[in-house]
């Protein structure tokens, strides 16, 4: 029996199903979580299905979370999607269910759950949810509603199909989702839109970014700067790709100061593997897209030096042929 068949068997076994995703969700977290929830609701109308987590400002157009009473977990199947490790799971009640399934596309450094399906080569967890439907032999059904959510997740996690994890299979899956008839162009526009405050912050990033000797780039966003633009940590997601648009930049990091003075690090790369560096700073993620944390700005120079060393090992796209 395949892992997909085992997952569907568990879905059919439980009357109550509660789906979790990671903290500070992105489109793939919301898309895979709510897309799967919608698929289960529409395939098994008699079941009670919840999608839980804090309200995600800016992503409510994909779907919104729901309140769940503690007692609902007691006999429930819990599914955690798009979450690499247990500290990042949104709503720590996920451990109180009857049975737990993990579905993810991050490196499986934290192998939690009673049943685990992790494919790091997949573009997104949303892509895996479509694969689950296709492997269910008709037991799970896809609709325009769920397809729209999953498409948003795929587009978000592939950077509009620009990242290396985009494969021919990814594009076939996206095409199949579009074929259900939702307005894909509207989803694309929504994902590409930015708020006026983010537009102003983008100009600040271009003006103040720093380049190292070997073309690593970084920007430090202090609380003072964020307050000036009337943005919190969540509002900085839209500027993460900006430094990578510079043709000479090989890898980059956005340092975002938190309310307690610590920093959240958003680390990205075009080729050099950066997730091992992220692990040195209590983080992790994909080889080319990771996150980490730093207790204060005193650690920034040492981190930037390591980032520069990684850039030095990358021959760069201009010399790759």
UniProtKB/TrEMBL annotation:
Domain (DDH): residue spans on this chain: 17-154
InterPro entries the UniProt entry points to: DDH_dom (IPR001667), DHH_sf (IPR038763), DHHA1_dom (IPR003156), Oligoribo/pAp-PDE_c-di-AMP_PDE (IPR051319)
Family annotation (SUPFAM superfamilies): DHH phosphoesterases (SSF64182)
Domain DHHA1: 240-311
Domain of life: Bacteria
Gene3D superfamilies hit by this protein: 3.10.310.30, inorganic pyrophosphatase (n-terminal core)
Protein name per its UniProtKB record: Phosphoesterase
Organism of provenance: Ligilactobacillus pabuli
């Amino acid at each position: 029996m395949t892992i997909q068949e085992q997952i569907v068997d568990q879905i059919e076994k439980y009357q109550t199903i509660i789906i979790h995703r990671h903290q500070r969700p992105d489109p793939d977290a919301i898309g895979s979580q709510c897309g799967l929830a919608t698929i289960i609701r529409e395939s098994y109308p008699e079941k009670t299905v919840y999608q839980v987590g804090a309200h995600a400002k800016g992503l409510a157009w994909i779907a919104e979370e729901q309140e769940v009473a503690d007692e609902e977990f007691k006999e429930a199947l819990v599914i955690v999607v798009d979450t690499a490790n247990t500290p990042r799971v949104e709503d720590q009640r996920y451990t109180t269910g009857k049975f737990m399934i993990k579905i993810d596309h991050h490196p499986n450094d934290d192998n939690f759950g009673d049943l685990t399906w992790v494919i790091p080569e997949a573009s997104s967890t949303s892509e895996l949810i479509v694969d689950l439907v296709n492997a269910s032999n008709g037991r799970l059904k896809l609709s325009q509603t769920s397809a729209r959510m999953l498409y948003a997740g795929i587009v978000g996690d592939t950077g509009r199909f620009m990242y290396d994890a985009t494969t021919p299979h990814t594009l076939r899956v996206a095409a199949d989702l579009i074929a259900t008839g939702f307005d894909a162009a509207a989803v694309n526009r929504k994902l590409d839109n930015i708020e006026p405050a983010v537009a102003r912050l983008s100009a600040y990033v271009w003006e103040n970014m720093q380049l190292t000797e070997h073309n690593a780039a970084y920007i430090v966003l202090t609380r003072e700067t964020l307050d000036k633009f009337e943005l919190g940590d969540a509002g900085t997601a839209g500027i993460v790709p900006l430094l990578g648009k510079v043709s000479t930049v090989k890898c980059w990091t956005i340092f975002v100061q938190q309310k307690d003075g610590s920093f959240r690090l958003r680390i990205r790369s075009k080729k050099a593997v950066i997730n091992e560096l992220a692990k040195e700073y209590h983080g992790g993620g994909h080889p080319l897209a990771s996150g980490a944390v730093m207790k204060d700005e005193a650690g920034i120079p040492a981190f930037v030096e390591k980032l520069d060393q990684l850039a030095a090992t990358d021959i760069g796209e201009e010399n790759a042929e």
